[in-house]
Amino acid sequence: MSEKPWGGRFAEKTDRTVESFTASIAFDRRLYRYDIQGSIAHCRMLAKQSIISEEDASQIVEGLCRIARDIERGDLELDESLEDIHMNIEARLTAEVGKAAQKLHTARSRNDQVVLDVRMYLRDEVVIILTRLRGLRQTLVELAKKHINVIMPGYTHLQPAQPLLFSHHLMAYYEMFIRDSARFKGALKRINVMPLGSAALAGTTYPIDSEYTAKLLEFPEVSANSLDAVSSRDFVTEFLAAASICMVHLSRLSEELVLWSTAEFGFVEIPDAFATGSSIMPQKKNPDVPELVRGKTGRVFGSLMALLTLMKGLPLSYNRDMQEDKEPLFDTVDTLKGCLEVYEKLLPRLKVNREAMKKAASRGFLNATDMADYLVTKGIGFRDAHHCVGEVVRYAMDQNKELQELSLRDLKKFSQAFEEDIFEILTLEQMVNRRVSPGGTAKENVVKAINEAQEALKLEAVEDESHKRKRKTPK
User: Fold this and answer.
1) Are 236 and 293 contained in the same domain?
2) Is residue 462 in some structural domain?
3) How many domains does the chain have?
4) N or C end: fewer C-beta atoms under 10 angstroms in the chain?
């Protein structure tokens, strides 16, 4: 049983059951890189402010760099009795450099150290997620451009409603993922706040330079309130909320791919490399990837609910309950990244059955609204036109025909306003291309949206590359 850094206060050693119960090393070990980077920056600040000597600082930094290499190689055995990654690194540092290591924790608490590590970790992960979201949006745009002439039925209440371009449908998801990206970028601003210097809860008496530490760690902002800095996890909650919304969009796309790939729809075929078979039915090809993405959505929702429940009754400031923030956070990061990556690879290989889509769009009276609009152009009020076309639809159903299959003589039974030009308006191409209102499905609108999206994606890529070149990791 290792000696605890806080053991001076206690007459008894910690029970082994308690050590195991309270340990977080099994999951917070992934924070080691950020813990070491944060410690190096903190150490350099202490030396700059003459709180510790340059000689001690040099030993500490060299020791921390050796520990980082040992962890990378798998040469450092982590001890559960030391609770977490922070205490494991500190214990190893003491073994490496001796008494100088005891000075590293000056002007710092595990409370501000932990939240620093989480902020640095989440900052990097959000950047990766934004990159994958951009990749997914790029994939959607390319797919939309490739299938710009494919017409499909649009649905409300899962009932055929009006025809639209398949590309228009894809670009709807592009818009959803644009908003997701904006949410993550907004969250990143609130994640990117440096809490180190808050210590346990009230700040520190040492003459620290938080701005210097923030500069070393590339934080544009320092926390304004020490109590808030160590006791708040709303930046994690905000990330989980953004992730949950993003998963809603991925889940809706998944549901459509599952439906569209059924024999009943036959709109798309999922590539073999992204599907599985049945252990008993040789003919089966199951859309497991979309189904799993749809299923993992509930998992991410659960993480959000877990953290909201965790935080809702905690008095300020830090409480050990907050250790439970990491597992749902880590799981959500891994889940979301995995879902984005698999869709970025699946969608370009999706097989689109344009004939099945066109056939489905040609039946079910999807041109009824256009017929009513035609009557409006002839001077009939929309409600009267709506009622008239409803009667025409009922008649066509009795005749087992579509509206475009009726004769002009049939139509004139319901209104003398019908003329021969009605049939041109009822074609799929006309129904689609006449919808030129902003955001409508007309081909000229969709082509414009695709072109604008491509330009925006290029600009994002350039900006991201520029940001990467500017970022420097503390040595």
Assistant:
1) yes
2) no
3) 3
4) C
Structural tokens at position 365: 């009276």
Distance between CA 404 and CA 337 in Å, rounded?
Answer: 47
- Phi first, then psi: give them for residue 312, nearest 5 degrees: -65, -25
In sequence order, what are the beta bridge partners of 162? 154
> Which amino acid would we find at residue 252?
R
CB count, 10 Å around CB of 31?
Answer: 24
Percent of the chain surpassing pLDDT 90: 87
256 burial via Cβ count (<10 Å: 0-12, 13-18, 19+): middle
- State which amino acid sits at residue 75: D
Structure tokens that stand for 91 in this block: 């214990």
Which contiguous run of DSSP H or E holds residue 97?
Answer: helix 85-97
Question: What are the residue numbers of the active site?
Answer: 157, 278
Range of the domain at 18: 7-106
CATH of the domain at 239: 1.20.200.10
Q: Tokens representing 320?
A: 């050990």
Say if CB 64 and CB 93 are below 8 A apart. Answer: yes
Q: How far is CA 181 from CA 124, 137, 336, 337, in A?
A: 15, 10, 13, 13
Task: Read off the pLDDT of residues 72-120 as tens digits, 9 standing for 90 and up.
Answer: 998 888 887 788 898 999 999 999 999 999 999 999 999 999 999 999 9
Across the strands, what pairs with 286?
Answer: 276
